[in-house]
Each structure stands twice: as structure tokens, then as C-alpha cells.
Amino acid sequence: MARIAGINLPNGKHTEIALTYIYGVGRSLSQKVLDTVKIERTRKIETLSETELDLIREEVKKYIVEWDLRRQISWNIKRLQEIRCYRGIRHQKRLPVRWQNTKTNSRTRKGKSVAIAGKKK
Q: From CA 110, how far away is CA 113, in angstroms rounded?
């Protein structure tokens, strides 16, 4: 198993897909990293040599990934909450942040619906 940015990458996957297991690295960034280090996207992780893995590690270090990215996102949310802007208030109330409809949708954000107890006709 290859270890990049503190994450164990699965052996049976193509390098392009395996790099997406790192938080903050999507398909486009993994393609960009592999193009700059000149490694084929379709090669499997177990076929890469240690020097090729070192090249990938050095290239991934140039980007904000994993713990640093998670910390930066949480700091941004805390900043929005401190200045009491609309988005910060929505984060505090655990409601959708980006102007989505909340009358019928947003179950993932609001949680499971609660029945009204004791309602009689």
C-alpha cells in the first residue's frame, strides 16, 4: 500500500482514482498532478516505484489537502458565525446555507421529520 499525505491508497486502483481518496483531491487535481510528474493515469498503484511515489508526494504537498483543508474550512465557517452574517446564522441553525427551499426539501440538513404528537381531527 502506498501512503501519500497520511492516507493509505488502495493497490488495485488506477492512480488517477486512488489519489481521489485524499481529502481535497478530486479527479481534475489528480489528473493535473499525474500530468506534471509524467505518470500514466491508468497505471495501478502497486506498479509505481518508490521514486515515482516520492514525485507524487512532492506534487501533492503543493496543495492544501487533508487536515489543513478541513481546518481551513472549519475556520471559515467559524468566521462567518462570529460576524453573524446570513450564511453563518444558517450554519448555526443547521439549515441549508445557499438559499435552498426548506418547506418540503432539505431533509439531510434538518434531520428526520418529527410527527406532531396528539393531533386529533
A: 8
